[in-house]
Design goal:
The chain is α/β, with parallel strands linked by helices and 219 residues long. The chain has one domain: 3-Layer(aba) Sandwich (Rossmann fold). It contains seven helices and eight strands; from the N terminus they run βαβαβαβαβββαβαα. The protein has a six-stranded parallel β-sheet, with helices on both faces. A two-stranded antiparallel ribbon has the order 6-7. Helix 1 packs parallel to helix 6 and helix 4 runs parallel beside helix 5. The longest helix is centred in the C-terminal third of the chain and has 21 residues. It is globular. The relative contact order is 0.17.
Protein backbone atom coordinates (compact mmCIF):
# COMPACT_ATOMS: atom_id res chain seq x y z
CA UNK A 1 0.00 0.00 0.00
CA UNK A 2 1.39 3.40 -0.99
CA UNK A 3 2.00 6.16 1.55
CA UNK A 4 -0.95 8.57 1.75
CA UNK A 5 -0.22 12.08 0.50
CA UNK A 6 -2.15 13.93 3.15
CA UNK A 7 -3.42 17.41 3.84
CA UNK A 8 -5.09 18.53 7.06
CA UNK A 9 -8.27 20.53 6.48
CA UNK A 10 -9.55 22.58 9.42
CA UNK A 11 -13.29 22.91 8.95
CA UNK A 12 -15.02 25.97 10.43
CA UNK A 13 -13.27 26.05 13.80
CA UNK A 14 -14.92 29.41 14.35
CA UNK A 15 -16.08 31.20 17.47
CA UNK A 16 -19.70 30.67 16.37
CA UNK A 17 -19.45 27.06 17.58
CA UNK A 18 -18.24 27.83 21.10
CA UNK A 19 -21.38 29.47 22.52
CA UNK A 20 -25.03 30.05 21.68
CA UNK A 21 -27.43 27.72 19.85
CA UNK A 22 -24.70 26.24 17.64
CA UNK A 23 -22.36 25.42 20.52
CA UNK A 24 -20.79 22.01 19.95
CA UNK A 25 -22.24 19.47 22.39
CA UNK A 26 -20.57 16.11 21.64
CA UNK A 27 -17.76 15.63 22.05
CA UNK A 28 -17.75 18.86 24.06
CA UNK A 29 -15.62 21.52 22.40
CA UNK A 30 -13.52 21.60 25.57
CA UNK A 31 -12.53 18.04 24.60
CA UNK A 32 -12.39 18.28 20.81
CA UNK A 33 -10.47 21.56 20.54
CA UNK A 34 -7.32 20.16 22.22
CA UNK A 35 -7.45 17.25 19.78
CA UNK A 36 -7.72 19.67 16.86
CA UNK A 37 -4.68 21.54 18.16
CA UNK A 38 -2.83 18.25 18.54
CA UNK A 39 -3.62 17.36 14.92
CA UNK A 40 -2.40 20.77 13.73
CA UNK A 41 0.86 20.38 15.60
CA UNK A 42 1.35 16.86 14.22
CA UNK A 43 0.63 18.02 10.68
CA UNK A 44 3.07 20.93 11.04
CA UNK A 45 5.76 18.61 12.38
CA UNK A 46 5.20 16.22 9.47
CA UNK A 47 5.30 19.03 6.93
CA UNK A 48 1.95 18.23 5.32
CA UNK A 49 -0.23 21.00 3.83
CA UNK A 50 -2.82 22.66 6.06
CA UNK A 51 -5.95 24.51 4.94
CA UNK A 52 -8.15 26.60 7.23
CA UNK A 53 -11.78 26.90 6.14
CA UNK A 54 -14.23 29.51 7.43
CA UNK A 55 -17.94 29.54 6.70
CA UNK A 56 -19.63 32.81 5.80
CA UNK A 57 -23.28 33.75 5.46
CA UNK A 58 -22.32 37.27 4.39
CA UNK A 59 -22.27 40.63 6.12
CA UNK A 60 -25.12 41.26 8.53
CA UNK A 61 -26.18 37.60 8.67
CA UNK A 62 -27.48 36.25 12.00
CA UNK A 63 -24.67 33.68 12.11
CA UNK A 64 -21.22 33.43 10.48
CA UNK A 65 -21.32 37.10 9.55
CA UNK A 66 -18.18 38.50 7.96
CA UNK A 67 -16.50 41.03 10.21
CA UNK A 68 -18.11 39.76 13.40
CA UNK A 69 -16.16 38.06 16.23
CA UNK A 70 -18.13 34.83 15.77
CA UNK A 71 -16.68 34.49 12.26
CA UNK A 72 -13.09 34.35 13.53
CA UNK A 73 -11.12 31.18 14.03
CA UNK A 74 -10.73 30.07 17.63
CA UNK A 75 -7.64 31.75 19.14
CA UNK A 76 -5.93 28.39 19.74
CA UNK A 77 -6.11 27.73 16.00
CA UNK A 78 -5.36 31.29 14.93
CA UNK A 79 -2.20 31.27 17.04
CA UNK A 80 -0.84 28.40 14.96
CA UNK A 81 -1.61 29.87 11.56
CA UNK A 82 1.38 30.34 9.27
CA UNK A 83 1.81 31.96 5.87
CA UNK A 84 1.87 28.51 4.26
CA UNK A 85 -1.71 27.72 5.27
CA UNK A 86 -4.36 27.79 2.58
CA UNK A 87 -7.20 30.14 3.56
CA UNK A 88 -10.69 29.44 2.23
CA UNK A 89 -14.03 31.15 2.83
CA UNK A 90 -16.98 28.98 1.86
CA UNK A 91 -20.72 29.53 1.53
CA UNK A 92 -21.91 25.93 1.37
CA UNK A 93 -21.66 22.90 3.62
CA UNK A 94 -18.91 21.15 1.69
CA UNK A 95 -15.42 22.62 1.83
CA UNK A 96 -15.16 21.96 -1.91
CA UNK A 97 -18.39 23.56 -3.14
CA UNK A 98 -17.74 26.94 -4.73
CA UNK A 99 -14.10 27.06 -3.56
CA UNK A 100 -10.68 26.42 -5.09
CA UNK A 101 -9.69 23.92 -2.40
CA UNK A 102 -9.74 20.86 -4.68
CA UNK A 103 -7.41 22.58 -7.14
CA UNK A 104 -5.03 23.59 -4.36
CA UNK A 105 -4.97 20.02 -3.03
CA UNK A 106 -4.14 18.67 -6.48
CA UNK A 107 -1.38 21.27 -6.89
CA UNK A 108 0.13 19.85 -3.70
CA UNK A 109 -0.24 16.27 -4.96
CA UNK A 110 -2.65 15.43 -2.13
CA UNK A 111 -4.74 12.28 -2.40
CA UNK A 112 -5.93 11.97 1.23
CA UNK A 113 -7.76 14.72 3.10
CA UNK A 114 -7.99 14.63 6.89
CA UNK A 115 -10.99 16.55 8.24
CA UNK A 116 -11.19 18.06 11.71
CA UNK A 117 -13.59 20.69 13.00
CA UNK A 118 -17.30 21.35 12.97
CA UNK A 119 -19.98 20.23 12.58
CA UNK A 120 -20.09 16.47 12.16
CA UNK A 121 -23.74 16.70 11.12
CA UNK A 122 -23.21 19.34 8.47
CA UNK A 123 -19.89 20.36 6.93
CA UNK A 124 -17.87 17.26 7.87
CA UNK A 125 -20.54 14.99 6.39
CA UNK A 126 -21.03 17.12 3.26
CA UNK A 127 -17.29 17.38 2.61
CA UNK A 128 -16.67 13.64 3.00
CA UNK A 129 -19.49 12.81 0.61
CA UNK A 130 -18.38 15.26 -2.10
CA UNK A 131 -14.78 14.05 -1.84
CA UNK A 132 -15.84 10.67 -3.23
CA UNK A 133 -16.87 12.32 -6.52
CA UNK A 134 -13.70 14.46 -6.58
CA UNK A 135 -11.43 11.44 -6.11
CA UNK A 136 -9.99 12.24 -2.67
CA UNK A 137 -9.70 9.70 0.11
CA UNK A 138 -11.13 11.15 3.32
CA UNK A 139 -10.14 10.69 6.94
CA UNK A 140 -12.24 12.00 9.82
CA UNK A 141 -10.89 12.31 13.36
CA UNK A 142 -13.72 11.30 15.67
CA UNK A 143 -12.45 13.15 18.74
CA UNK A 144 -11.47 16.30 16.79
CA UNK A 145 -14.95 16.88 15.36
CA UNK A 146 -18.30 17.47 17.05
CA UNK A 147 -22.07 17.65 16.72
CA UNK A 148 -25.07 19.45 18.20
CA UNK A 149 -28.49 18.33 19.42
CA UNK A 150 -31.07 18.32 16.62
CA UNK A 151 -34.86 18.51 16.71
CA UNK A 152 -37.38 19.30 13.98
CA UNK A 153 -40.59 17.93 12.45
CA UNK A 154 -38.75 14.74 11.48
CA UNK A 155 -37.69 13.91 15.04
CA UNK A 156 -35.05 14.44 17.73
CA UNK A 157 -31.50 13.17 18.19
CA UNK A 158 -29.10 14.19 20.93
CA UNK A 159 -25.58 15.22 19.93
CA UNK A 160 -23.97 11.97 21.08
CA UNK A 161 -26.37 9.93 18.96
CA UNK A 162 -25.84 12.25 15.99
CA UNK A 163 -22.06 12.12 16.24
CA UNK A 164 -21.60 8.41 16.90
CA UNK A 165 -24.14 7.46 14.24
CA UNK A 166 -22.47 9.62 11.62
CA UNK A 167 -19.02 8.30 12.52
CA UNK A 168 -20.30 4.76 11.87
CA UNK A 169 -22.00 5.88 8.67
CA UNK A 170 -18.91 7.66 7.35
CA UNK A 171 -16.62 4.76 8.18
CA UNK A 172 -18.91 2.39 6.28
CA UNK A 173 -18.38 4.12 2.95
CA UNK A 174 -17.06 7.68 2.76
CA UNK A 175 -14.20 8.06 5.22
CA UNK A 176 -11.69 6.27 7.39
CA UNK A 177 -12.58 7.26 10.94
CA UNK A 178 -10.07 7.22 13.78
CA UNK A 179 -8.94 9.07 16.88
CA UNK A 180 -6.37 11.84 16.77
CA UNK A 181 -3.80 9.63 18.51
CA UNK A 182 -4.30 6.77 16.02
CA UNK A 183 -4.12 9.22 13.12
CA UNK A 184 -0.93 10.82 14.46
CA UNK A 185 0.71 7.40 14.64
CA UNK A 186 -0.42 6.62 11.10
CA UNK A 187 0.87 9.98 9.87
CA UNK A 188 4.28 9.41 11.41
CA UNK A 189 4.41 5.85 10.03
CA UNK A 190 3.28 6.91 6.56
CA UNK A 191 0.31 4.55 6.49
CA UNK A 192 -3.41 4.90 5.90
CA UNK A 193 -6.10 4.68 8.53
CA UNK A 194 -8.11 1.47 8.43
CA UNK A 195 -11.63 1.79 7.05
CA UNK A 196 -14.64 -0.51 6.93
CA UNK A 197 -16.93 -0.95 3.91
CA UNK A 198 -20.68 -1.04 3.41
CA UNK A 199 -20.93 -4.82 3.12
CA UNK A 200 -18.87 -5.53 6.23
CA UNK A 201 -20.66 -2.81 8.18
CA UNK A 202 -24.06 -4.20 7.15
CA UNK A 203 -23.11 -7.73 8.17
CA UNK A 204 -21.71 -6.62 11.52
CA UNK A 205 -24.71 -4.37 12.06
CA UNK A 206 -27.12 -7.25 11.54
CA UNK A 207 -25.25 -9.35 14.10
CA UNK A 208 -25.14 -6.48 16.61
CA UNK A 209 -28.85 -5.80 16.17
CA UNK A 210 -29.69 -9.47 16.78
CA UNK A 211 -27.61 -9.49 19.95
CA UNK A 212 -29.29 -6.33 21.19
CA UNK A 213 -32.72 -7.79 20.46
CA UNK A 214 -31.82 -10.92 22.42
CA UNK A 215 -30.56 -8.92 25.40
CA UNK A 216 -33.71 -6.77 25.36
CA UNK A 217 -35.88 -9.88 25.36
CA UNK A 218 -33.96 -11.43 28.26
CA UNK A 219 -34.17 -8.27 30.31
Amino acid sequence: MSTPRRALVLVDIQQQYFSGPLEIQYPKHQESLPMIVKAIDAAAAAGIPIAAIQHSEGEGAPVFALGMPEFDLHPDVEARRTASWKEVIKNYGSVYAGTDLAGWLREHDVDTVTLVGYMTNNCILASAVEAEFLGFTTEVLSDATGAIHLANDAGFADAKTVHTTLMALLNSNWAAVGSTDVWTEALQAGRALEMSDLGSSATAGKVAASRKQYVDQVL
